[in-house]
Amino acid sequence: MKNDLPNIAPDSAEIARTLEDALALQRAAYFAHPVPTLAERKADLRTLQRFIRENKQALCDAISADYGHRSQHETLLAEIFPAMDGISHVIGSLRKWMRPQRRSVDLRNFLGASNRVIPQPLGVVGIIVPWNFPLHLSLIPLTYAFAAGNRAMIKMSENSRHLAAFLIEKIPAYFPADKLRFFDETGGVGIEFSKLTFDHLLFTGSGQTGRSVMAAAAANLVPVTLELGGKAPAILCDDFPLRLAAERILFAKLMNAGQICTTVDHAWVPRAKVDEFVAAAREIINARYPTIASTDYTSVIDDRSFERLVGALEDAKARGATVIQVIPGEPYDRATRKMSPHIVLNAPADSVLLQREIFGPILPIRAYDSLETVIQTINAGARPLAIYPFSNDGRRVQMLLDRVMSGGVSVNEALFHVAQHDLPFGGVGESGMGHYHGREGFDTFSKLRPVFYQARFSALSLIGPPYGKFATTLLGFLTK
Question: InterPro entries per the record (predicted)?
Answer without folding.
Answer: Ald_DH/histidinol_DH, Ald_DH_C, Ald_DH_CS_GLU, Ald_DH_N, Aldehyde_DH_dom, Aldehyde_DH_NAD(P)
